Amino acid sequence: MADSTTPGDAPQKPTLHHLSDSQSQRILWLLEELAIPYTLINYKRDEQKRSPPELKTIHPLGRSPIFVTAHGRIITESMTIATYLLETYDIPKKFAHSDWIRDMTLTSFSGTSLLDLADTELLFDLAAKHTPWPLSYITRYIKKKYDSFFSTAEFEKNMEFLAKELGDQEWFNGKEPGRADFMLSWPMDFVGQRGYVDLKDFPTLHAWRMRITERPAWKSALEKGNGYDLTSW
Amino acid sequence: MADSTTPGDAPQKPTLHHLSDSQSQRILWLLEELAIPYTLINYKRDEQKRSPPELKTIHPLGRSPIFVTAHGRIITESMTIATYLLETYDIPKKFAHSDWIRDMTLTSFSGTSLLDLADTELLFDLAAKHTPWPLSYITRYIKKKYDSFFSTAEFEKNMEFLAKELGDQEWFNGKEPGRADFMLSWPMDFVGQRGYVDLKDFPTLHAWRMRITERPAWKSALEKGNGYDLTSW
User: B18 forms bridges with which residues in the sheet?
Assistant: First the structure.
């Protein structure tokens, strides 16, 4: 699973194009955990909290994270970047998993079911925020209906699933964090920071999240990045 | 990457718990492509188009697809199931990819960016449908705003990205379909059937989608399943 560009290229430091208040935070965290040299280029969300147009000059989708390997290959999608980083730089296999089916299931889950649900909640929040009164009253009414009909129960089911998967382990990956932990950090921060789920109702998941924030690599990632406030949309 | 349950278990036929009008269709298609013996259990969406409660007895998340391996291990998440099937049963490597970074990027993309965008559109459709007049007028107004502010341009960017990735190949995977093709079939059918994107504006993507429907395995998957109508929500 090595980088497949011309092997003769002189390797440079890899580069992370990082966006504030975004899922790129989990990649920055992983880079800090791996303790490798890399170049960090920080971008700020615009006033409407969208990606700035400069990111489109790196990759046409214009989203962050964008990772450029030491050989110059551009990689998008957090899952691919995280996998590439672990395959390439976790030489001592500190973050390796012992069960690929479980690891991929949790990794995929972090980007599909859970994030999808959180994004929908965000959309309702935005609709309520950007709709003038009295229409905002109606959007809030629709959100309440949606929550009671669907999303509250779905969030609970998702959290129960994750709590069961975590069990009494420190990390989803076992004794050390792994791809599933790095990947799950984003949707869990998203639902936690925005209050879509009160993680204190799920003490083991809350403890897992706190465990992340205590890691030196997480702290240095926060220092090197340019903000991770998911409440200000 | 073999199934990690006790090797001494006598292998049975694997089972797919399949839901009508759902992403499980891509797994059914893959099973037919692999031409292996398997048990298919069909479930129908309820009147509100949701998963029936029976699925919760198989896995607490109650979503389809749910795959039970020949050794009795339960796997959820389409990406994990597709990967397991290819790793386990594609012995001649007919559907193998030559570049794991590209394959994972497209596979992840099918479940994150593209599907997330499509789900949001669906949500607006549902809000408009289930909101009584004159509130439905307002939800449609909000949807229009959202489309013009965000989603129309996002869909276009996504389609341009995919068209570029497909290039002049028959399949994203090259000469034969691969994991990325199986996985992309669902969001592309979703946006195509519901008219979120007019795929005729992207002739190579349209031709790719038509190419799928012409495959004998796709046709037999449709026959064995219990409906694949994504327009009736």
Answer: B42
Which ipTM score applies to this complex? Answer: 0.92
- Both tokens assigned to A13: 């430091």
* B227 Cβ under 8 Å from any chain A Cβ: no
Q: What is each CA distance from B213 to B106, B159, B163, B197, B217, in whole angstroms?
A: 20, 19, 18, 18, 9
* Least CB–CB distance from B111: residue in A63, A111, A130: A111
Above pLDDT 90, what percent of chain A? 73
DSSP-assigned letters across all residues of B209-222: HHHHHTSHHHHHHH
- According to DSSP, the residues that pair with A196 across neighbouring strands are none
Cβ of B161 and A109 within 8 Å? Answer: no
The Cα A136–Cα A139 span in angstroms is 5
Two tokens at A9? 């290229």
Q: What is the pTM of this model?
A: 0.93
Mean local confidence (pLDDT), B79-89: 98
pLDDT single digits (tens) A38-49 = 999 999 999 888
pLDDT band at A123; cut points 50, 70, 90: confident
Start-to-end CA distance of chain A, whole Å, equals 38
Q: Compute the average pLDDT of residues A128-132.
A: 76
H helix count then E strand count, chain B = 10, 4
* Measured torsion, CA atoms of residues A137, A141, A146, A151, in degrees rounded to the nearest 10: 70
Q: How many C-beta atoms surround the C-beta of residue A174 within 10 A?
A: 15
Beta strands in chain A (DSSP E): 15-19, 39-43, 66-68, 74-75
